[in-house]
Amino acid sequence: MLTASIVTFHHSTKDVCKVVNCILSSTIEILYIIDNSSNDALREFAEFSKKIQYIHSLNVGYGAGHNIAIRKAIERGAVYHVVINPDICFPNDVLNQLTEYMEAHEDIGLIMPKVLYPNGELQYLCKLLPSPMDLIGRRFIPIKSYQNKHDYDYELHWTGYDKVMEVPSLSGCFMFMRCSVLKQVGGFDERYFMYAEDLDLCRRIGEVSKTIFYPKVSIIHEYGKGSYKNKKLLKYHIISVIKYFNKWGWFWDSKRRYKNQECVKRIKAQL
Length: 271
What we know:
This protein is of the alpha/beta class. It has helices at residues 13-24, 62-75, 93-104, 132-140, 144-154, 179-185, 197-206, 231-248, 254-270, and strands at 2-8, 30-35, 52-56, 80-84, 88-89, 108-116, 126-127, 165-166, 169-170, 174-178, 210-221. The longest helix has 18 residues, at 231-248.
């Protein structure tokens, strides 16, 4: 069984329709809509299809919202679960190919396809495990030449994004995960209200299985970068980054150094 979840917060029906239609046209058997809004305006989606389960939740955060769905998926015996952002759309064959690849490689816990902007431009969402400078410096040092040089290495631009590769940090916009691994690591860490929860989960999955970038299929992501435009979201972002480094280590993180070195070495051997 393949299940999926989206977490919404005052999204309009129009905002969510595109991703819901993609999901209903796919092999996903159950879609959990976890609505963190103060109203239940999206409840009408439950009438569209028996595949949809609408859950109106207290606004417990992004990761905690998905955990509601992940627990239900595991209880129902799902083999795979996909965490999907509301601003995603994808063709029908994407999930089939990801499922087939996961079936053939049981050591993979998480896989992410190539992600494109609506205009077809590539989104660089494969990353090394970050240092404080990676997350804080690139956000607050407004020097384009510095950011470009930094991102070339940190976001692995040099790989070409044209081959299957094991990467320690993948985007949370589309996380196709093995439920047995999700159960093993405990899903999202709910201490992160918003932001960095995907980084933390990816890192924990990477400690017990492989986290793979699979560029043979692609999805579309509108990617608003909300924390760059909204001071409240920026505050959430900063708080989550602090929680992440308090958990994993600020400047002394031997696992980070080892995982990043192994990632670069492994990819260079493929070139």
